[in-house]
Write a structure and sequence with these properties.
Length: 294
């Protein structure tokens, strides 16, 4: 079994189509991809994919194999990244990721924590969606990230903030007349929330609705704040999003707090337990400075 077999299998599993995986993800021919998948199944000794005129689906064995295949590739990528860094010992870099939008509040604080080391290191900064940041930490592409406590990744987390959820709505919506939105005001409205990818937000939202005694079904699931704002404006729906959204709203979308005790979602500093960077160790020792009021 070779790494390419795992990459090919994951691409087919994620697209649900041999043709789409071959043409759009792997840039190879469909017959060649089919042969690679057959070689993999012969090596494993079981059928991993069920083929039909409608595409391909994972068998029970395929579903079990998929998670391990992803983990194996993550570990290989992490090993490659570690080797590359070790080959350049004189060039110290520290890579920090931010959930898009949070860099406005947390980048200055992070740089303040690193102030004594700035002459000796190169700080690399990026922003992305929380699950993608978690994957980058696992793969060794980031040293540290400000993100949600993602349940599907083996990472260490230190919560640095607890953000209340707020209601996003069109700027001319009837509820803009209210200073705060009651839970029951959400009933009958087009409702926008976290998708299956935005698991943390979705879980917090569903728990809040359940505790409020509301049976509200999700009309649109979104992966990120930008998608939420676009759908609020285009569908005239309501969305529950973390409070940092207030810093990024376009003119067509406004926010209101929830009445009473609003649900909260954690923002954490996350990192890989296997990361031995001395700069990471220094950063973690100064978390108290990071969380101090500014």
């Amino acid at each position: 079994m070779e790494l390419r077999h795992l990459r090919y299998f994951i691409a087919v599993a994620e697209t649900g189509s041999l043709t789409e995986a071959a043409e759009k993800r792997l840039h190879t021919s469909q017959p060649s991809l089919s042969r690679q998948i057959r070689d993999l199944e012969n090596h494993v000794g079981v059928e991993l994919l069920s083929r039909s005129v409608h595409g391909v689906e994972l068998t029970a064995a395929g579903k079990a194999f998929l998670d391990h295949a992803r983990l194996a590739l993550m570990q290989v990528d992490a090993a490659v990244e570690t080797a590359r860094r070790a080959a350049q010992p004189t060039r110290k870099t520290f890579s920090i990721g931010f959930q898009t939008g949070h860099e406005m509040n947390w980048l200055p604080r992070a740089m303040h924590v690193l102030r004594d080391e700035m002459k000796n290191i190169q700080v690399m900064v990026s922003s992305d969606y929380s699950p993608d940041l978690a994957e980058a930490l696992v793969r060794g592409r980031l040293d540290l990230a400000f993100l949600r406590v993602e349940p599907d990744y083996d990472l260490e987390y230190h919560v640095v903030d607890r953000e209340p959820l707020i209601v996003l709505m069109p700027s001319d919506h009837r509820l803009t007349a209210r200073e705060a939105v009651r839970p029951q005001d959400l009933v009958g409205e087009i409702f926008i929330g976290g998708s299956n990818k935005a698991k943390v937000l979705r879980a917090v939202t569903e728990d809040y609705l359940r505790r409020s005694g509301l049976d509200i079904k999700l009309d649109h699931g979104v992966d990120n704040l930008a998608m939420a704002m676009s759908l609020v404006a285009s569908t005239r729906g309501l969305a529950l999003m973390p409070a940092y959204a207030k810093n990024l709203l376009p003119w067509s979308v406004v926010s209101r707090p929830l009445e009473g005790e609003a649900p909260v979602i954690d923002l954490a500093v996350g990192y890989s337990k296997s990361n031995t960077s001395p700069i990471l160790k220094l950063f973690l020792s100064r978390l108290g400075e990071l969380m101090a009021p500014k």
